[in-house]
Design brief:
The structure is a homodimer. By secondary structure, chain A is mainly α. The first copy, chain A, is about 80% helix and about 0% strand. The model of chain A has no long low-confidence stretch (mean pLDDT about 95). Chain A binds a DNA duplex through helix 3.
DNA sequence: GCAGGTTGAGAACGATCGTTCTCGACCTGA
DNA sequence: TCAGGTCGAGAACGATCGTTCTCAACCTGC
């Protein structure tokens, strides 16, 4: 009854949740089967290996995160100045970090765990961060600020994610926002 | 002939190198024995488990990193203004990121890999980052700048480490330094 | 030289994991 | 009703890993 696309969706969602909570290597395919309800046979029909399942999870997460950021900025500062929209990105981070199961940026985490052994994981992460940097660069250009600011804001955003994940508090988003406010005003 | 302390040292050094290169879970105790020359029996006499070996590696790395930072700042900007010393921290990052086997901050990496399953790893990482923040807070106070700046600089530093590790280039240190220069001048 | 303890190399053990296979239940179409 | 195919649950397999054990070689003190 449940169709193939729904199985894929449930598998990806369960895998994302488990990878996020426990890391990639600590999560077995059995755990993904149990959490998603999708039997092993179907998992391996849709994703030929765990590595390809991880790749699919990261691809899905990439579009998820990017649309969440742009959606938040549009709805909270869509009518504000470009500078307001830049700062809204950090307000988004604050909301994200406060979610109860926040465990950091999946791309930074998987790069830390597997980056030494998987070039694929690194390159998916690089593409994701590059896309976010380009989004910030667009806002920076609209604000008439120098392009180099986009890289600085990206370092701030990544730093907020890494710091918040380690500390277990969303404070880093507030610090990053304050720093960003100084940078866009300079 | 080789004495117990030397074995411990070689084991810690080999484990640090391997954990850094491949992550913790991908490195077996056999690989640490082969790389260090310390037999398994001695490894287990000095470190009752792999988890305690990791803990010891992180403790060693904590003092290593902190003395490297303060040593660099003292020797490169010891006679400069407090603001120069703050910026020298980011010059240190640039040198570090350019090392050929740089693979990111071990505390951020292990937190990403094991933070979901090991509270110990998280708390060692938090202590390390807190110590660095306190060092920055000292420089900030000497410069007569508001204490909140220390947290912002810490986010910048963590962001530079995470970004450089993912990108494989030391550029992020330059971006972080430029942002820090604006913040300390504000 | 010799008993008694210590050591190292590697085998062994038990657990886990990614992946594949078995086999019985169930559906389908005539 | 029946043949043929599909599917799910779980067993099975081979590899890896953390940890412990075996056993022969080697010290040490006398």
């Amino acid at each position: 009854m449940s169709d193939r696309a729904a199985d894929v969706e449930q598998a990806l969602e369960a895998a994302e949740r488990l990878f996020n909570a426990r890391g990639v290597q600590s999560v077995g395919m059995d755990a993904i089967r149990d959490a998603s309800g999708v039997p092993l046979k179907r998992l391996y029909r849709e994703f030929p290996s765990k590595a390809e399942l991880l790749h699919a999870v990261l691809d899905r997460r990439d579009t998820e995160v990017r649309s969440a950021v742009t959606g938040f900025v549009d709805s909270h500062a869509g009518s504000g100045s470009p500078r307001d929209r830049i700062l809204a990105v950090f307000d988004y981070l604050a909301e994200w970090f406060a979610e109860p199961d926040f465990r950091g940026c999946m791309f930074l985490n998987t790069a830390g765990e597997l980056g030494g052994t998987s070039e694929t994981v690194l390159s998916v992460g690089r593409r994701h961060k590059l896309a976010l940097r380009d989004y910030l660069a667009g806002l920076v250009a609209e604000a008439g600020l120098p392009e180099a600011l986009a890289d600085q804001l990206m370092v701030l955003a990544n730093g907020a994610m890494a710091t918040a994940a380690l500390q277990g508090t969303p404070d880093a988003a507030v610090h990053a926002r304050a720093a960003a406010a100084v940078l866009v005003a300079a």
